[in-house]
Structure prediction request, 428 residues.
Amino acid sequence: MNTQASKEAFAEASELIPGGVNSPVRAFKSVGGTPLFIDHGEAGYLVDIDNNKYVDYVQSWGPLIFGHRDESIEKAVIEAVKHGLSFGAPTLAETELAHEVVGLFDSIDKIRFVSSGTEAVMSAIRLARGFTGKDDIVKFDGCYHGHSDSLLVQAGSGLATFGNPSSPGVPADFTKHTLLATYNDLESVKKCFADSSDIACIIIEPIAGNMGLVPADKDFLTGLRTLCDEHGALLIFDEVMSGFRATLHGAESITGTTPDMLTLGKVIGGGMPVGAFGARKEIMAQLSPDGPVYQAGTLSGNPVAMAAGLAALKKLKANSKIFNILNDRAVRLVTGMQDAARKHGITMQVDTRGTMFGFFFNENKVSNFAESAGSDHALFAKFHARMLEEGFYFACSQYETGFVSTATTDEMVEETIKACDKILGELV
Ligand SMILES: *Cc1c(COP(=O)(O)O)cnc(C)c1O
Prediction:
């Protein structure tokens, strides 16, 4: 496979853009090699600037649930563009999309649109703090909630509950209000409440997708709900990734736990930059201009982005069976890969939630970040590079979740399993 044009493009980009990319995960650092520059997408495929074609399991990291260049989304965007790109004034599309989204979740009465998942979570946390009058937040090791200061935390030495900054440039003063707990471990959350009487909220990916795919146990979520109620804290489900990916009605519809607040992104913009956060009426009433908690955005609710999101959500609502159909496909993909690996003496842990799938080269079940980190990352890096050469584009880290879309066909899945069998055979 010739990727000369991508290599040259990457070298040139690296002169002008740090690491040659505008978001670090794209740089392929964790698997080595250089990123492919994309010319275009077509349904289930990506085509790079050397004209190589790949089955796409990344789908722009989640948004493209109908694959590339979905006809109805493309049409809606082109229509919106003809009316103007941005007005900084209300448009009907915002209310229409709000109506669609609020109608899908029991947990939220009102919603505000922003331009990214990072912004959605950052704003939701400010609102939770404003509403409760408390400062501390609880987050889980391995959950990602965007790159705002107070969420870039890692475990401190000596099992401290209070997080340390995970990036230079984040003052320790900013992260001292972020308490770190272990995913699927209720005792670690109880310890946070024992250490602080000032907890505004717990934020969690109820279906974690940023340490690989690691769903929360139902009982664990029930436990979080109880702890929040006992201590007057809010429970925030960050469904920027899992929203409209695992199911149409959110994790609350499949786990039995209802959050106080919800953050969304990715699919909600149909491929355009959209994030959103919502909650019940009393909480949202605290948000500016109704209430005192400030939040704003020049391009928030952008009409072209709203049009793309609306087209995507309408199509999902009209075809809600696709979650079952695509889940069958995702299950076939990962169990097929798992069987192929077993033939070669490799143990793989696999899981799916709707259109999301995950796999770990790991002997044991993965239920938190430490267990995910214990997977065989060296084998994954080789696997990733070889699959790419065979024409299969997987996320370049075992900490990422894979996606199937309506454009991922049964044939693509079978070809992927076959390639996986061949490659793992070569690698052992
Ligand atoms: C992607 C993601 C974010 C951040 O969204 P951006 O649009 O990249 O800022 C936040 N939370 C979760 C769970 C995500 O997967």
User: Anything to note?
Assistant: The longest helix spans residues 322-343. The pocket of pyridoxal-5'-phosphate is lined by residues 116-118, 121, 144-146, 205, 209-210, 238, 240-241, 265, 275 (CB under 6 Å). The chain is about 40% helix and 15% strand. Residues 15 and 100 are 44 Å apart (CA to CA).
